[in-house]
Structures are given as C-alpha cells and as structure tokens.
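To: structure subgroup
Subject: Chain for Friday's discussion

All,

I'm putting the inputs and outputs inline so they're searchable in the archive.
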Amino acid sequence: MSFHSCIVLFAFALLAASADAAVKSKAKVVPADAAEKPKAKVVSADGKPNVVFIIADDLRDYAGWMGGHPQSVTPNMDRLAKMGMRFNNAHCNYALCNPSRTSLLTGMLPSSSGVFGNEQDWRRSVQIAGKPTLPEYFKAQGYMTAAAGKIFHANHGGPEGRLTGWHGGRRGFELDAAWDLRFPQKGVQIPDLPVHTGQNFNGLNIWHWDWGGIPVAEEKTDDGQIAGFAADFLAKKQEQPFFLALGLYRPHSPWYVPQKYFDALPLDSIKLPEVKVDDLDDVPEIAKTHLKEGLHQLILEKNLWKDAVRAYLANVAFCDAMLGRILAAVETGPNAKNTIIVFTSDHGWYLGEKQMWHKGRLWEATTRVPLSIYAPGVTKPDSVSSQAVALIDLYPTLCDLTQLPLPEHLDGSSLKPLLVDPTAKRDRPAITCMGGGPNAGYAARDERWRYIRYADGSEELYDHQTDPNEWTNLAAKPEHVALKAKLAGFFPKEFKSAVRPVAEIIGAASPAGSVDLALNIGDVLSAADAPKLQGRGVFMDASFEYDPLVDQDSTLLAQGDEQCGYVLHLVASQPTLTVFTNGQSTTISGAPLEKGRVNIRAQIDTGGVITLAVPGHSEVLGVAPFEQGFPQEAKSGLAAGQSFGILKAAKYPNSTPFDGVVYRLNLTILPPHKAAATPAAQAVEKPQ
C-alpha cells in the first residue's frame, strides 16, 4: 500500500469518528448524566496553570481529524486533538481575519463590537473601549503575557514586506499594552518572510494570492521563526504563570513554503473538492455576488484548480510541522504538567466550492474551524464533542480553566462543562455574521442544521445529517417554518455601531456659520451627517505622537471623494494635504517629520489658497483648484484616521489608519464665502 493510500485510509478513519457543525455564545450546557459529573481542576503547583494559545490563519477543515480532505497530512494537529478534546462542530463568528480575531480576543460578537471589516481598526471601537482583551485580562490577573506571530489582525506586508500598510502590514492592529514580551519585537506581529509576496509563481498575477515552493530553510520562514521563539520560551521555567499566544500565518496566502512540502504532493494525485455543477441554482441572488469576481472561472481557464488545492495542502502540512515543534517544546519543557494548550484557526477557506475562493460568506466551508483543547486534569484523552461551539467561547473558557472571574462584557460561554463531560449538550446554535449594520446577515448552526438569513430577508437552510455539502436549500419548505424561527431567535437583535454618535462629534454652528468638530481617531460621519462643504473652506488643527516606523503613510482626516473632498495625511513621513475636485487632485507636502510630538495646521480657505504648517518645522502654501470655497457638496462622508479615506489603493497602496496617540484633532468648517452667502448656503444643519 502506498504512502498516500495510507494517508487516505487514516483520514477516513478519523472522519468516521468526527462530525460537522457550528458555534456560539452564552449557551447553557446541560450534562447528559448530571450524577456522574466529575470535579475538574487543572493540576498546577501554584494553582494557576499556564496557557499556550495557538491560532493558525485561514485553516479550514483540512486538519486530518476533521476529514475535510483525504490527502491532508497533519499528524501533529491530530495528535493534539487526541490529547484532549476535539470539537468537530466549531465555528468562527465572522469569516474574515480582523472581525474574527477581534471577536475571539475581546469576547464580543461583531454585532456587539461593531467591528466587521478587515480595514477597520478594532482598537478605535467605542464599544470595545474600556473592556480588556483576552491577553490584557490575563496580564491584569498576574499572568506574564508573551506573543509571537499574528494574534490581532495583520498581514505579510505586501511585496515590500512592510511593517505597516494595506490591511495593517506586519504590525497590523497590534495592542502593545497586551504583552510583556513580543516576538519578533515590540510593535511587530509577523516576522519578515525572506521571499515577499508578488512573485507570480502561479501566473495569475494577483500579488496577494500566489503560491509556490521557496528556497528558504524552515527555521528562516516567518512561521519557523515563531516556532523557534516558542521552543526557546517553553524550554525555560518562568517565574510566574504565563499566557503564550502563537500565531502561525500559514495557510494564509501567499502559499510560500519550502519546496519539499509541494514535492510530497504529486500534482496528478490531487483530489479536488466535491462540487455540484448547479449548486448555486437554489440560493438567493445576494449569496452569489462573488461570481462577479470571476475567480473560479479564471482558475478553470488557467487549469490551476489542482495546483491551488495542492498548494493549500502543502501549506497546511507546513503549518502542522511548525505546530509539532511547539508541541514538542511544551512536552519536553518544565511546564508540561500544568499547561493548557488550545489550537484553532480564525476561519475557513473556499477552494472552489460554490464557485467560491478565499473567505467570507456564511456557508460551512468558511465558518467551520479546527478547535482542540488540552487541559491537564480536566480533559479526557481522545474525547469528542459534536456540540455547536464558537470562537467567542474561548475567552470565558480560558478564564474558567484558570479559575479567573469572568469579565462582564463577554458574549460567549465557557466550554469547560463540555470538557468535563463530553456527552453534555448545549441549548444554543453557533452564530456567524457577515456584513455589518443594516447589511448584516447571519448563520445559525446547531448539531444538525445550518440556517442563513441575509439582510434582505432571503434564506438558506441545510440539513447536515443528509446534506453535509450544503447542496440542497430547504428554506422554502413549509415544514421548516418553526425550525427557522427557532434558529433565527438566536440572531442578534441589533448591530451596534463602533463609532461615536453624531451628536458627540459636531458642535453647534456659530453666528457666522462656522461649525466645529472635535474628532477622535475612528470617528465616522455619513455624507448626510457631515457638515456641508459647498461654498466653504476648512481648517484643521492636529496634535499627535508620531512614529515613522508606524505612521509614515497614514491618514488623519478625510472627507468627500474624488469629485469633491480633501485629505490630511502622511506620505513617506511628509505631512500632506490633498484637495479633490472633479476627479483631479491638488497636493502640497511639507518636510518629513521626525519622531515625537507634532502639531499640524492646515487650511483650505474660500479665497483660493491652501496652507499646511508644522510650527517650528515647515510651512507650505498652494493654490486651491477653486475660489469661493468648494464648488459642490461632498457626496461621501467624513472619517478620522481611517485607512485610505479618499485615497485609492492603486496610488497609495500603503495607506494605513493612524496608529499613534492623538492629543487633538479639530476641524472647523469655515463660514460660506460672501458670494455664496445665500440663506440656503448659510444654513448648516446639525443632525438631530
């Protein structure tokens, strides 16, 4: 029998012992046999067990024990799953990196935090403010906290491997205060991979979605460096209990790993995912918008489907090898008997199912994640739970296992009762969100069913007992009305906003007609709520702490769009003011800033002059592309510190939200030019 045949048989044997499923929050757990509920306590010399929390990126059900693909080679994931409990029905709460990790690490559903986008800086959410993240809480409770790799949202840094940039770069939306020790260094989440993305190995010329073998030793890769740090850390006896968070970037793209992982998977042997040609015929139109991207058609035209699956499997195998190094370090180190180990992923990934690639959506392939927990003295070896659980449950679970009181803001509920009694039941489904605000849609997954309801009211319903691939939408069947209503009853009743209310941002208009705004980074106003620009100019006054390593290409304030608007931003450390009219831009820039506190004043006046001044540093004058104020109203709103703003990624690919401390960010909408001072122009509406 060949090696690959053995792997296939082994994977199917594991699959027979597994199931499929879901997630969620404050669920009651009812022991199947309350009389036999054992007393549970993690064995620890000082009463406080250590925690090793490991999260992979974009890892779907291709862990071997989950049975997602017969050619997955994941002996370490499988071994860890058998050491304690594996949850074969675990789900993310949002199928994108930033909102998923924010939900997990804050213990708040996306609907509670208001965080639902990859470019949205979760640290600025007014709903999260004052509530400790998971590592912050453990630190406050006396734990030494350490981290390596992507824990909060971050990415590879693009073709330049930048520290900051689109999607945050290798720093990302890091929370420096959460960690006593950070690898590769303070303020940086992801080590630099020697081979940057954009090599175009696969011929698709999509810089962020490339794959191929690279001539880099394992220990020199980003994840290899993380595993090396973990091994060194775990070999030492720490003076206090520790919370060690390790983020393995694979199998996130680019799928660049040493060539041997590709060589182990001959291309002609690769098995494609099961698909149904007319799979999308019975789903709502809102669920098929990804077809406009044409990715699946492109993969078929280029004959790259097997190649892509092979690359993903190679990266999963590499992720598993790095996990193996970490597990070995725990087991041979001085903390083996009193260390809890958690392994999971932030969300799944599509490989052509439903003609979908990448992540997002509310179907099983992207919501289901591996989740295994080993807790000495609590978990039983080789135990399994098929109950629907969610990543939102990990925060309260770790508090429960370490005997820490639960913070009040948590939406999830502890999995400890399931760890103690694998036959216990939960009374709620797992909930996954997609979209935000009035556009939010939700999926509820229990032991048997997945019910999806989109923002427009359209629905999908799948019976995983008979349809594990979700090929037959049963939502229109009248016999399922009560089931749908029951599952929908667990959907959040509201989606809270991450930004301050309008009334807290906009001041009263002065007798002359000017309007003052005292802004915080993260503030957002819609076009309807933002003060009017036509016939007016603006004055901006900012004071902030500047770090060129983090903020050299960041945006402070933007309003409007390319037809009418302005941006106060930084480009390669130069303070820059850009004014847009009729699709054209006028830009002035000062001298590069140095690290430290900076004051900036900028004005676009109604007489046709623009100024940008850094007191004691530089002052620049320019001519506005108009006289008598902006010639029209801005059709887009206002945002403080948001990535890009009006700026387009093609021209400003490294634009990032402003990261540092802002002491003052004031905006004054100037009175209308006298020539435009009609009663209508003077009327500045303050939202009610």
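Points worth raising on Friday:
The longest helix spans residues 305-332.
Residues 3-423 form a domain with the Alkaline Phosphatase, subunit A fold (CATH 3.40.720.10).

D.
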